[in-house]
Each structure stands twice: as structure tokens, then as C-alpha cells.
Amino acid sequence: MIYNVHKFRFVSALSRGSKEAGWLISTAVVLLPTALIWIAWGFMNAVVVLLHLAAFWIMAAFFQWALQKYRKKPFQRHYAGIAAVLVTVIYLTVGFIQANHVWQTDYTVTTAKPVGSLRVALLADSHVGTTFDGEGLAAHLARIQEQKPDVVVIDGDFVDEGTSKADMVAASRALGQLHAPYGVYYVFGNHDKGRYANGQRGYDGDDLMAELQKNGVTVLQDQSVLIDHRFYLVGRQDASEEKDFGGSRASISDLTKNLDKDKYTIVLDHQPSDYDAEAAASVDLVLSGHTHGGQMIPMVQLMRWFHIGEDNVYGLERRGNTDFIVTSGISDWAMKFKTGTRSEYVIIDIQGK
User: Fold this and answer.
1) Torsion of CA 71, 73, 75, 81, to 10 degrees
2) Start and end of every Calcineurin-like phosphoesterase domain (predicted)?
3) What is the pLDDT of residue 261?
């Protein structure tokens, strides 16, 4: 990057022929904006900006080289660098909007079971403090409330290691303002308990659960609940209990073996990584988050093509008699950009007998 910046005319003009001054100016042009992004938005976002600028610069340099070969005459200006900067700014501005604005995504699923008409609001991966704080969540919840859901489900990563206790309390309080006939339900994600931070954020999973319960939210941990004799909600412990923390979680077959198979069953499972077992258990609908919809190009495509880590990266899929929905999440973890997807909450209309 420093080498390519050194090719700009303004560097030679400012350095007045001094090689040392030229390289110092080039270095400053690269490092100072990077440092400012790091200070304002954190290390991860500084890396994201630099990687995109480098990638676009490589592509632009290739096109400039090819055009020079075609026209058999070198360009007088460093157009590759100008194009790379402009494309990066435009591209990541769109990515910033897609991450920080929240869209509504609608699905309709049908069933032969006697559940009637049921509207479910799903949100996941709010990672409070990344693109909005605890108070900011309330504005998004107001939009969800306007859709008049019968039940609201929070599918993990409500907070993460960087969420302050004040924001956690404010966000939990915002959930307490929701009014749904069948209530608000929550399952843990891999970040909620703050284990990756080794207890440094000032509260743990039990503190979070207590705050949620104080605001009328029902926390499900490998538990099921029959609602209005119409449908079951099954809330699973997150897969990270087994994969990352040496613990365990109940199998979906154990969680559903005593349930009435004639009633509609909705499973909340933060990570979309147990599809075969969930389809074999004949549950009707599985709701997940965790993937952030792939977050960035080309991760979206790589995750979809090769099923990296998960069974699905985004959207609605049906296996056997089971519908699976993965949301891209209402916010982000660490990054303030989404180039391969966009932030959302989900409204699901279930149509049964």
C-alpha cells in the first residue's frame, strides 16, 4: 500500500525531491487514516477497510496494466490508485448502510397441523453496542411491535463480550416494553455469557438471565413450553456449550420425545448446525442466527457453496417436513459493514388449520 501511494504525484510534490520525505509521506497517508479508523471503530474495522482497499487496488492495477498494453502507451496518472480509493469508499459506504439500517424480512410457512394463524417475530445477533446501543434497540423493537406479533423470540447473541453492563440493562429493559399475546422468549448464543472475554466485561450469563427475566422475558435452556395448547417452543442450549466450553446440551430427540407430535413445534437453536437431527425429530420449524448471513463477500458465497461450519448461511430451507430459517441478524459482531447481506428482523406467518 505504501509503495503504491508513493506513485501519486502529490507525494513527489510534497517531498520536493527528497526520497526520505517521500516515503514518510506515503507511510503517513496509509497509517494515519488506518489509525483513526482503529481508534473510532476498532481494530477489526481498520483491517476490513485496508483489505478492501488492497483488493480493489490490485484489481485496478491489473486493469490499468492491461489497458496500457492495449493502447501501447503508459498512463500519465496513477489511475489505478484513484479508482481503488473511490471504489472502496463507495463499496464500504453501501456496506455500512446495509449493516446499520435494519430491514424487515417476511416469510410464510404452511402446515397441516391445527395451529391456526400464528405470527412470530424473530431477532438475533443484536450484539448490543456494535451498530446501536441499548437505547437504540428500543427503536427497532417499536417497529417489530407495529407488526403485532403473537410471540417474539430472541435467538441468541443478544449481547457480546464488548457490551457494557449499562447497555445490557437498557436493552433488556427495551424488551420489557414489547407486548405480544404469548410473550417474549430467549435462548443463549455463543457470545451472550461473555466467556470469550474471561469475565472481564463485568457481568455473566446468570446476570443477563436475571435482567431478562426481570423484564418479563422467558429464558429457555434445553427446555420446551406448550403455549395456549396450540404450539410448542423448544429452546436449545447453544452448540458452543459442547464445541467451545467443554459442556453439553440435550439432543433434539431427547427434548422432543415426550411432546405431542400433533402440535406444531418451533425450535430456537442459535447455530444452524444440527439440521439432520432436527429434521429426523420431525419438528416443524427451526429458527437460527449466528452466521450473520455470511457478513462479507466472498464469505457469503464460500459458506453457501461449501457449507463452512454450518448447515445453512441464510434464508428459508426445507428438509423433509421441517422448515429452517436463518436470519442475517439485526446487527453485527465487531464489524460495522455488511457487503454480502443486510441487517434485518424477521416476521414469520405460520398458516395452519
Assistant:
1) 70
2) 118-293
3) 95
Q: Are 190 and 290 in contact (CB under 8 A)?
A: yes
Angle (CA) 328-41-23 rounded to 5° is 125
**How far are the Cα atoms of 54, 269, 312 from residue 319, in angstroms, in the given order?**
41, 16, 12
Distances (CA, A) of 241 to 167, 169, 221, 236, 271: 25, 24, 11, 11, 11
**CA 195 distance to own-chain centroid:** 19
Which tens digits make up the pLDDT trace of 72-114? Answer: 777 777 788 999 999 999 999 999 999 999 999 999 999 999 9
| Amino acid (1-letter code) at residue 98 | Q
Q: How far is CA 72 from the centre of its chain?
A: 47
Instruction: Dig out the grid coordinates for 274 from the structure.
Output: 444440527
* Partners of residue 350 on adjacent β-strands: 109, 118
Residue with cell 423470540: 153
Q: Which cell is 87 given? A: 471504489
Question: Beta-carbon neighbour count of residue 112 at 10 Å?
Answer: 10
Q: CB-based contacts of 346: which residues, under 8 Å, 6+ apart? A: 104, 105, 106, 107, 121, 122, 123, 325, 327
d(CA 286, CA 155): 11
Grid coordinates belonging to 191 = 457470545
Average pLDDT, the chain: 94
State the average pLDDT over residues 290-314. 88
Sign of CA dihedral 299, 301, 303, 305: negative
State the pLDDT at residue 265.
98
Under 8 Å between Cβ of 103 and 144: no
- pTM value? 0.92
